[in-house]
Amino acid sequence: MKVWEVMKQPTVVVSPHTRITEVKALMKKTGARCAPAVIEDDKLVGFVVRRDVIRITSLKSEAKVEDFIRRHPILFKEMDLQTAFNVMIEHNVKAAPVADSVENPKLVGVLSLMDILRSLLTAGYKPKARTVGEVITKEYCSCKPSERIDRVWHKLVDEGVDAVLVERNGRIVGIITPKDLIDQRSWLFHLESERGIRSPGKVKSFMTKGVIVAHAGVPIEMVAEFLLDHDFNLLPVVDADGRVLGVIRQEDVVYAYLQGAKPVVEVAPAIAPPTPIEVEYVTPSDRLKQVLVEKAVEVRPPLLTARDVASKTIYAVTSSDDITRAINIMLRHKVSHLLVLNEKGNVEGALSKRCIVKALGLKGPIWRRRAYEPRFIEQIMMRSVPVVSANASLEEVVSTMLFHDIDCALVEGDGAKYMVTKDDLVEAYAKYYAGRALVENLIYPHKVGIVPRHCSLAHVVKLMESHYLDAVVVAEGDSVEGVISESKLVFTPVKDRLERRRRITWVRKIERAGRKIARFVKVTPLVAEDMMVPVNVKVKATADAAEAAKLMLEHGVDGLPVYDNGKLVGVITKLDFVRELARGAIAALEEREKKLIERARKGG
């Protein structure tokens, strides 16, 4: 297996002159482990990892990527996967950039240990070592909850430790990793400050509590799946009394698959795997399968092509424009998507309302920018916008969109570029696809997409992102209070100078047993009821999906509540129509494969 088969597109790309504080903000936003540094023509010159960006201990640091850049290792796309793994272990990195070749050092991707592990599981490989005890790393780093954070910081930065276990009386109570320090800022002790170091805080204030552990007899497959689902650096390994025996790291698990048990390691008896439980993890393929009422997908000849539904007029901004300008263009022209151009006028990506909604869900909102970074379109835009042929069927277009987890695609044909968006697809569905499916055949099951009134805005955004939704229903029981639409959610925080909050007046007593006369204002985050829009329209689960699409367009919302026998069962959104059309494309592909197999058998 080659590197190019496994690598992913980089989510963060920087230049050597980018400030480390900006890179840290990008890593916090995307969860990236590696940020490749490129110069003109995407020539790769190095990279930084999480351990490098936490070297700065002040928000006012002037340090740039070139001050901490790593020149090695650089992987190449034709490199063998085993060789790439050995190189990453030798240099103690969890991820590294991939260049085209030695002669052409152009950035083509990023490879991480998680990518390697995911590819091995997907390909059906079985580990050569059976249990955690066969590949456990017995050396680990630990500290007490009362230890100063600067001492742990030195272990992470200077000693290259993946994580520090926090122990009390021989038992683990927490863990601290470079990601914990990236996600927080209160630990900063201003090492670079001319005024002197601020008194460092204690580890207990910054560690992750409630650590999940493994036992020596746990099967490797279970640990592999858990690391992939949660993107952990390692898991502590404990005995029956809860005392730490060691750790199992990402590289240990990959080692178990590629090479087997480590030499001179005591092998623990395998523990029978527990009864599997349902875990809510939604992949693109899962999204197609999850519906309230499943129906057989009929393979029909394509009705429309990308050229038939694409928007002929595309509005654009530059990557250096202010976000306010982009928002104003969306409002003025009533569009949800903009092309993003670089200084030379070339297409660099696309900006949609969905991109902005994702940014809203971050801890420490991206709107609170420091003075030197007021523009951040290039940080939240979609860099890899799929391009389809103008003659591609509508089903092929939407399956491409779903695979890339975005809601638009560029169309090339006749020497021009167009754009297909989810709004274009809903209009086409309402006009041409009557009778294709019922509402119950499109919506998610188990009331996915319904939230209570006092649910936090961050939770709403996370729900919409993880389930490929562009609307949720706010309800109490079966009573609908309103709908939060992606298209409306974008503008409310922006037009209030991006600092809107709820203000609640509290009253307290100045003296014991006295009257409540002292007032103070408490500022709290936005909740679902602050962002919802009242909607008086609802649809039945047995209604034609095309009629639901017409109602959405008529009332200007991205979703409508769905009822069945008087009970609220879910929400139908515009992206549900994308999923429905994609199912048709998958069915057509499976039908073609089936015919090819039958033809090959007859020919043989």
Q: Could you give me the name of the CATH homologous superfamily of the largest domain?
A: CBS-domain
Determine the CATH topology of the largest domain: CBS-domain
CATH architecture identity of the largest domain: Roll
Give the overall silhouette: globular
Q: Give the termini distance in whole angstroms.
A: 30 Å
Q: Give the proportion of residues in helices.
A: 25-40%
* Number of discrete helical segments: 22
Sheet with most strands: strand arrangement: 6-7-8-9
For the report, how would you describe the main beta sheet? Answer: 4 strands, mixed
CATH top level label of the largest domain: Alpha Beta
What is the number of domains?
A: 3
- Mean pLDDT value: 80
Unreliable segments of 5+ consecutive residues: 271-282, 362-374, 493-510, 518-523
Annotation, overall tally of beta strands: 26
Radius of gyration: 26 Å
Assess the beta-strand content as a share of residues.
Answer: 15-25%
Query: Strand pairing plus helix content: what structural class?
Result: alpha/beta
Which characteristics define this entry?
single chain, 604 residues, alpha/beta, CBS-domain, 3 domains, 3-stranded mixed sheet, globular, CBS_dom_sf, CBS domain
